[in-house]
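Help needed: design a sequence for this.
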């Protein structure tokens, strides 16, 4: 959550409260219905077909994802009154498969002193026995950030439509004694239960430029005491938004958030850096006696290395899916349009396809893959047997709806002697990708996909690889080049890039892209790196969109496997 425009927003809220548009706890549901996501207006060329988004208005952070009585719940930061940030409530939808969704009325909206100026991000915790609880940030009448608790009103209702706020709210507040900056104290995580019977939760914070994960402990989930030391902090990183802290192993079978001491266990601390708008994570060890997190690597220590996604992906949150024993990642994907343009289209923001998340065998990074359920939307498969793709050639993948597709391609390189030399000064993969875009010929590569392409190639988004010969090993670069994605000059077309930790001599290079009208989510090397792009074609729309495999390098490559599917529309009403 950012806090700009909070003054205008405050005025708006006062007006709304005066006219009874924003519901208070005591009054009843008629006005509240008006806040429920309502139908969108027509001519919505950039709306997605299988990514989660409300029918209209602004959406940002995913909040409190969980499974309860066999139903998945997603809450999210939502402005019921417009396509711009403001008037934030917790909108709420449920699903049986994480793909098709039913909307409900907002679960949490301003109604108490502790949240009267806004209900910002937070998380759910499932107590032993299955009862859920929400911790979230509220904005109080003095515009301070405080932490609140809400619990379901009726545990027999699997939809958990009504939530009761604790009469003890706010539970955690900034005071002169604890020296917490009241403008930088937000986004509680899922709590975890220590072997000593006490709950722990972390809250995002900064002091001057030091980002912090403040630690609180509680025996009863109501009375919380701030620990003397944060779980972790790093100087110079600015505000840590939406922290997330959880255990992983190299087995895709996930672990409950409270698990400590399992075989091969590592802990992940993720923070959303307000300064850069990147979700960075570190892998390390959680010492549950000292209650501190020790990152394994030096780069991780500075939160400068690992990202969930090297494109647009922010304010993400994981949850443990006890139904299918896996850890799932949700993330908000912002527009790349100007503010006036997203206000004009009447909506802003989508959620990424939920991703299965686990630790790579190397222990040095996470792996991510779209959840299996997304494959139920696949239809009309197109497949190619292995075939060469000569240097300088391009091949159209025909027979799929190219604006709404799932494509998975693997490449094999028979020899690597044409690889260009890697200059050790190239430390910034995004910069390298922007200097060596899809149209710049190399020794090996660029090769990959041209997506959302117009027939005349005036528009396309290129997701591709390049291979360089480094001093000790080959360097594989993965890029998403948006520079030609739209004839419209206004959207942000920053090119994204990442170095992939693969050995092209012994491994196939794979690329999977989920294409959905204005979004492309790409997974390199079976999930070792992800790049999400928002693009706004003017010609490559719907049936005018095409999909190509290309090789603009000197060396030939082999397409060892290519499968593509048209995607059905999900039910997201
Ligand atoms: C609680 O939810 C159940 C299941 O939806 C419903 O039958 C029951 O009437 C609800 N109880 C109250 C007090 O609303
Ligand atoms: C407190 O946070 C606000 C908002 O980020 C910032 O403007 C202010 O400088 C911070 N104060 C301190 C002492 O860090
Ligand atoms: C969202 O995108 C806008 C441009 O459309 C940009 O100004 C803003 O910083 C982005 N925010 C995040 C969290 O990515
Ligand atoms: C690429 O393959 C073609 C045959 O399809 C061959 O004539 C050509 O020599 C190959 N190029 C290289 C650089 O190996
Ligand atoms: C080809 O790709 C498809 C889709 O990813 C996969 O199911 C299949 O196993 C692959 N085949 C081979 C031979 O790798």
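Sure. Designed sequence:
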């Amino acid at each position: 959550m950012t806090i700009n425009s909070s003054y205008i927003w405050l005025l708006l809220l006062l007006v709304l409260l005066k006219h009874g548009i924003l519901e208070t706890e005591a009054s009843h549901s008629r006005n509240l219905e008006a806040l429920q996501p309502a139908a969108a207006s027509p001519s919505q060329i950039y709306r997605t077909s299988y990514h989660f988004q409300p029918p209209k208005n602004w959406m940002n952070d995913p909040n409190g994802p969980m499974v309860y009585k066999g139903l998945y719940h997603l809450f999210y930061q939502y402005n019921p009154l417009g396509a711009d940030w403001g008037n934030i409530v917790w909108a709420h939808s449920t699903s049986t498969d994480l793909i098709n969704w039913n909307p409900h009325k907002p679960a949490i909206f301003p109604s108490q002193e502790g949240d009267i100026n806004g209900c910002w991000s937070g998380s759910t915790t499932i107590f032993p026995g299955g009862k859920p609880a929400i911790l979230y940030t509220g904005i109080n009448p003095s515009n301070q950030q405080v932490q609140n608790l809400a619990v379901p009103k009726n545990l027999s209702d699997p939809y958990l439509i009504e939530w009761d706020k604790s009469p003890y709210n706010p539970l955690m507040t900034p005071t002169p004694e604890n020296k917490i900056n009241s403008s930088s104290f937000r986004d509680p995580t899922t709590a975890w239960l220590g072997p000593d019977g006490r709950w722990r939760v972390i809250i995002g914070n900064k002091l001057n430029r030091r980002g912090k994960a403040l630690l609180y402990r509680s025996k009863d989930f109501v009375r919380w005491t701030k620990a003397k030391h944060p779980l972790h902090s790093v100087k110079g990183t600015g505000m840590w938004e939406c922290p997330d802290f959880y255990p992983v192993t190299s087995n895709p079978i996930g672990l409950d958030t409270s698990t400590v001491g399992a075989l091969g266990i590592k802990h992940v601390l993720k923070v959303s850096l307000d300064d850069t708008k990147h979700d960075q994570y570190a892998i390390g060890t959680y010492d549950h006696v000292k209650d501190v997190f020790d990152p394994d690597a030096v780069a991780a220590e500075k939160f400068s290395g690992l990202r969930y996604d090297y494109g647009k992906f922010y304010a993400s949150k994981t949850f443990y899916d006890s139904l299918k024993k896996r850890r799932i990642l949700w993330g908000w994907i912002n527009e790349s349009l100007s503010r006036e343009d997203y206000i004009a289209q009447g909506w802003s923001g989508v959620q990424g396809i939920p991703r299965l998340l686990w630790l790579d065998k190397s222990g040095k990074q996470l792996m991510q893959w779209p959840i299996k359920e997304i494959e139920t939307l696949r239809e009309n498969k197109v497949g190619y047997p292995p075939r060469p793709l000569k240097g300088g050639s391009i091949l159209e993948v025909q027979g799929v709806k190219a604006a709404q597709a799932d494509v998975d391609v693997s490449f094999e390189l028979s020899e690597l002697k044409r690889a260009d030399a890697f200059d050790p000064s190239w430390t910034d993969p995004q910069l390298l990708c922007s200097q060596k875009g899809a149209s710049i010929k190399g020794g090996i590569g660029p090769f990959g996909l041209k997506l959302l392409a117009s027939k005349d190639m005036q528009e396309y988004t290129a997701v591709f690889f390049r291979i360089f010969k480094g001093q000790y090993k080959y360097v594989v670069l993965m890029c998403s080049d948006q520079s030609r994605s739209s004839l419209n000059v206004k959207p942000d077309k920053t090119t994204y890039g990442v170095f992939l930790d693969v050995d092209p001599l012994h491994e196939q290079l794979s690329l999977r892209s989920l294409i959905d009208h204005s979004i492309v989510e790409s997974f390199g090397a079976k999930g070792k790196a992800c790049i999400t792009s928002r693009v706004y074609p003017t010609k490559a729309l719907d049936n005018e969109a095409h999909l190509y495999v290309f090789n603009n390098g000197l060396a030939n490559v082999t397409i060892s496997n290519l499968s593509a599917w048209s995607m059905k529309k999900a039910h997201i009403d």
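The first helix runs from residue 6 to 18.
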